[in-house]
Design a protein that fits this description.
Immunoglobulin-like
């Protein structure tokens, strides 16, 4: 049941992001909140029709599998194992951060397919969520702390979201010094929705 609800929420979030981007291009009024999008286009619990193709080992785009289609960023369990960032597992609390094709990056870095974006806790010890850039809008699920474990393993309410970027082609990890948001304030809350307008890379 928990997995189904998470899948439904992921569908709604991705639909909202793409609707917003499309509306901006066409010059029409876009829904300003997720609730408006839900009312306008009620989602049905079905397999997402929008998935992100992941780069294969040869560098070519691979066809997404059914397992990939049920993940927010189109990643199968095997893809996750091969990622640079090792991040927190699913918990009962999470938030969603959208990075779109309109998100600007200041700092001589251009996102390319295969690059990774990750959300970290304020002290930088825990990766709370990650997604692989595939040249399309992506939604990063940032997981909260699991109260059923003794150790801290995710974000807690009030934590600022800290970004890192992995340049896959150059094999370099970048710290993000500043983030501008189109929606949200970058402070973690349960079921929070954030749309990133700009990222400023910290000088190496």
């Amino acid at each position: 049941m928990k997995s189904a609800l998470f899948q439904l929420r992921s569908i709604i979030v991705v639909t909202f992001i793409l609707t917003f981007a499309s509306a901006c291009v066409q010059g029409i009024d876009a829904p300003t909140t997720l609730s408006e999008q839900v009312v306008a286009e009620p989602a049905e619990p079905a397999t997402p029709s929008i998935v992100h193709e992941m780069p294969s080992a040869t560098g070519e785009s691979a066809e997404p599998t059914q397992q990939q289609a049920t993940s927010v960023d189109g990643a199968s369990s095997d893809d996750v194992k091969d990622r640079h960032f090792a991040c927190a597992t699913q918990a009962d609390v999470n938030a969603t951060i959208a990075v779109t094709t309109d998100t600007s990056i200041d700092g001589n870095l251009v996102l390319e397919p295969g690059d990774e974006l990750a959300i970290f806790t304020p002290n930088g010890d825990i990766c709370a969520g990650t997604a692989v850039w595939a040249g399309q809008n992506i939604a990063i699920t940032a997981w909260g702390d699991d109260p059923q474990t003794e150790e801290m393993d995710g974000l807690i309410k009030g934590d600022p979201l800290h970004f890192r970027i992995w340049d896959a082609s150059e094999q370099v990890e970048y710290q993000v010094a500043d983030v501008d948001y189109q929606e949200g304030d970058g402070i973690f809350v349960e079921d929070g929705i954030y749309i990133v307008a700009a990222l400023t890379i910290e000088e190496q």
